[in-house]
Write a structure and sequence with these properties.
There is one protein chain. The protein has 11 helices and 9 strands. With about 290 residues, the protein is an alpha+beta fold. The protein folds into 2 domains: about 5-120, Homeodomain-like (Arc Repressor Mutant, subunit A, Orthogonal Bundle), CATH 1.10.10; about 130-289, Alpha-Beta Barrel (Multidrug-efflux Transporter 1 Regulator Bmrr, Chain A), CATH 3.20.80.10.
């Protein structure tokens, strides 16, 4: 089976799942609908998308449950039952493990670790061909001072990020390296973020407005490289958040992660973006946890 055929077989499975997301679903049922054995579909889905069919269904239901908690007045129990959990307790355990806070705390605005998973598109399923999936470990021995601008964006809207990149490009030469730092999650699925350049470029900045400051924290980072269109970068980030399993010797860290790219490439079809995922080396006891 060629690459396009594999991707479109998985996409047919995604379309089937999305149409029945709040119905009882099994891998057997999905496989029967799209053709082939459950074993073959599981292997194909994991190879193309990076997670299992069941993992995709779970991530989508929990993402939708978060949206319902945020945007509706439905009770936690009604959301749990709609998302095919047998009880409120079972839903609460799954939601807390996935998102980092309980459904009630999430609804009240508590800080959380949610990366919402939207319906997979053909673009998202294709994007893994543009990834270097094995990260390079890199020590940032000192904090990297940055100057730039703060903004906010809808995670699903590439135009919000593009506008910030254009605003930064107006202040600095296209040839400089830009660093994006994720900030706090905001109501309505928006995120605050910082976009800047190394602080020593401050003297070259144009425009009268004062620049904000931030820094890429010192520490250990796992660096992945995305190569492809800028609109697929967010799919790479979602993929890493959902599927990358660090080796036993390291753990993901609370420091902000970063995206590093050349401003001149921001609209290029061959945009190279280094995704810096903050990690730390763990003690033996932590590795066994």
């Amino acid at each position: 089976m060629n690459v396009d055929a594999r991707i479109h077989r998985v996409h047919r499975a995604v379309v089937y799942v999305e149409a029945r997301l709040f119905e009882p679903l099994t891998v057997d049922r999905v496989a029967n609908a799209v053709g082939g054995s459950p074993f073959h579909l599981q292997r194909l889905f994991t190879d193309v998308y990076g997670i299992s069919v069941a993992g995709y269904i779970r991530a989508r239901r929990l993402s939708e449950s978060a949206r319902m908690l945020r945007d509706t007045h439905k009770t936690v129990l009604s959301i749990a039952l709609r998302c095919q959990y047998g009880s409120q307790a079972a839903f609460t355990r799954a939601f807390t493990k996935y998102i980092g806070v309980s459904p009630a705390a999430y609804r009240d605005g508590a800080e959380h670790q949610l990366t919402e998973v939207g319906p997979a598109t053909v673009l998202e399923l294709c994007h893994r061909d543009n990834l270097e999936a094995t990260p390079q470990l890199h020590w940032q021995h000192e904090a990297r001072p940055l100057v730039g601008i703060w903004g906010e964006a809808d995670l699903a809207c590439i135009d919000d990020f593009t506008r910030q990149q254009d605003a930064l490009a107006q202040r600095f030469s296209d040839g400089v390296e830009a660093v994006g730092l994720g900030g706090a999650m905001l109501p309505g699925g928006r995120i605050a973020f910082f976009l800047g350049v190394d602080a020593y470029h401050r003297a070259c900045a144009s425009g009268p407005d004062e620049l904000a400051t931030a820094s890429l924290p010192a520490g250990l980072y796992a660096i992945f490289t995305h190569r492809g269109a800028s609109e697929s970068v967010r799919h790479s980030i979602s993929y890493f958040a959902q599927t990358w399993k660090p080796p036993d010797s390291i753990r993901k860290d609370d420091r902000p992660s970063a995206e590093v790219f050349r401003l001149a490439q921001r609209r290029s079809e061959s945009l190279d973006v280094s995704l810096w995922i903050a990690v730390h080396r763990c003690e033996p006891e932590e590795a066994l946890a």
